[in-house]
Amino acid sequence: MTIPQEVIIKEVGPRDGLQNESVIISTEKKIAWIEKLTNAGVKYVEVSSFVSPKWIPALADADDVFRYLKRKEGVTYAGLVPNEKGLDRALRANVDEIGIFVSASDTHNRKNVNKSIDETLSILKDVVKTAKREGKSVRGYLSTVFGCPYEGHISIGQVERISNILLEMGVDELSLGDTIGVANPVQVKQVIRQLKTTIPTGKLALHFHNTRGLAAANIVAGLEQNIQVFDGANGGLGGCPYAQGATGNVATEDVQYLMESLGVNTGLSLKGLVQAAKYIAPHVGLELPSYQHRLAQKEDDGA
Amino acid sequence: MTIPQEVIIKEVGPRDGLQNESVIISTEKKIAWIEKLTNAGVKYVEVSSFVSPKWIPALADADDVFRYLKRKEGVTYAGLVPNEKGLDRALRANVDEIGIFVSASDTHNRKNVNKSIDETLSILKDVVKTAKREGKSVRGYLSTVFGCPYEGHISIGQVERISNILLEMGVDELSLGDTIGVANPVQVKQVIRQLKTTIPTGKLALHFHNTRGLAAANIVAGLEQNIQVFDGANGGLGGCPYAQGATGNVATEDVQYLMESLGVNTGLSLKGLVQAAKYIAPHVGLELPSYQHRLAQKEDDGA
Question: Coiled-coil intervals in this record (chains A, B) (predicted)?
Answer without folding.
Answer: none
